[in-house]
Amino acid sequence: QVQLQESGPGLVKPSETLSLTCSVSGGSISGFYWSWIRQPPGRGLEWIGYIFYSGYTNYAPSLKSRLAISLDTSKNQFSLRLNSVTAADTAIYYCVRESRSGRGFLSYYFDSWGPGTLVTVSS
Amino acid sequence: SYVLTQPPSVSVAPGQTARITCGGNNIGSTNVHWYQQKPGQAPVLVVHDDSDRPSGIPERFSGASSANMATLTISRVAAGDEADYYCQVWDSSGDHRVLGGGTKLTVL
Lengths: 123, 108
What we know:
Chain A is mainly beta.
């Protein structure tokens, strides 16, 4: 069973860059889409963006100008960089594996989640 | 962009049936997925592709979708089902993943 684990600083200063890494174990990065999802304290889930194992990326429009997702297949990891952060970026960040729908309409869903890591933006 | 609308809260007595809705334009023409999130934990997939359950999810959890509404049904609700529930679809127009705002299920 695949396992995901986020890592990175828990505190980032305003205007600086938030960097997180997701380590994947128990399975290969190859063949899958990998997403980041965040959740501000006491609020709902927000999809941030994904990277396909080929390196292709797609980001949420609201974050596209500040966001970069990359992967390192040799380490079985993928990473998130969000620059020019503000307090509004304070959230629990989850790394997630996606699966493609097996029937019906084409779709994608999140079948494996990391435990999440809280990142606080504060001076 | 595509929007999914969920009621903020649903309450149900133990042993009864809870129905959590997810509204979206022509949602019946896409696959809907549902997640359960208990306090302090990461979300867990409970239904995918409208009505399929991952291994380990009880048969009490079921889903359906048509027209502009999808529904997650939890039968014989127990205290352990108290959680936030989120619906999710794939927005083909931008290849984006879209999540509903979440519904807090309270077991009375």
